[in-house]
Specification:
It is found in: Cytoplasm. It comes from Catasticta incerta. Belongs to the TRAFAC class translation factor GTPase superfamily. Classic translation factor GTPase family. EF-Tu/EF-1A subfamily. It contains one helix and 16 strands. The protein is an all-beta fold and about 220 residues long. It folds into two domains: about 90 residues, Beta Barrel (Elongation Factor Tu (Ef-tu), domain 3); about 80 residues, Elongation Factor Tu (Ef-tu), domain 3, CATH 2.40.30.10. The protein has a six-stranded antiparallel β-barrel with strand order 3-4-8-6-5-9. The radius of gyration is 23 Å and the shape is flat.
């Protein structure tokens, strides 16, 4: 009832209404509510970031990295750099679902053909960016907010879990637990704790065991 058209069995339901700066929307059915959802703005104005999901060698074409555009725009002819390996090359073509694209925008899962780079040089977890406009770089260390959900013992400096960051899968060492924080408010509750345990949240300096491309969330 009330999925596609108003139902006579639900006279108590007077409908829904939402007011926003784009205008007022109202209706009685689920389909109208779905139609009234505004698509999110795609971050095309930010620097290009495309984490690689896989790299293929395709006969007659060459090396084809595959991944989803997170921010920015990828076009044929762009000189891309792959971080953290710092390999620079030109994009010859961009395809999605076997169709050539003039540009790929955030949310697009694309394959793109690159010049003079072998499959062995690229791997899952690398991040492609525009070499001329705020290119991605590897991080020597980074500060993270960590919440321990379920861990049998105490976690102290030196603990090295495997981190899944975008498509990268790399062990990172807890170099320094800077402070414990309240999970809800984010306010500091203890500086330089010796250890943290299940249920704790903390600000930690992490050091990747291999080069890792990671950036602050903006």
């Amino acid at each position: 009832d009330n999925m596609l058209e108003p139902s006579t069995k639900m006279p108590w339901f007077k409908g829904w209404m939402v007011e926003r700066k784009e205008g007022k929307a109202e209706g009685k059915c689920l389909i109208e509510a779905l139609d009234a959802i505004l698509p999110p703005a795609r971050p095309t104005d930010k620097a290009l970031r495309l984490p690689l999901q896989d790299v293929y060698k395709i006969g007659g074409i060459g090396t084809v990295p595959v991944g989803r555009v997170e921010t920015g725009v990828l076009k044929p002819g762009t000189i891309v750099v792959f971080a953290p390996a710092n390999i620079t090359t030109e994009v010859k073509s961009v395809e999605m679902h076997h169709e050539a694209l003039q540009e790929a925008v955030p949310g697009d899962n694309v394959g793109f053909n690159v010049k003079n780079v072998s499959v062995k040089e690229l791997r899952r977890g690398y991040v492609a960016g525009d070499s001329k406009s705020n290119p991605p770089k590897g991080a020597a260390d980074f500060t993270a907010q960590v919440i321990v959900l379920n861990h049998p013992g105490q976690i102290s400096n030196g603990y090295t879990p495997v981190l899944d960051c975008h498509t990268a899968h790399i062990a990172c060492k807890f170099a320094e637990i800077k402070e414990k924080v309240d999970r809800r408010t984010g306010k500091s509750t203890e500086d330089n704790p010796k250890s943290i345990k299940s249920g704790d949240a903390a600000i930690v300096i992490l050091v990747p065991s291999k080069p890792l491309c990671v950036e602050s969330f903006q």
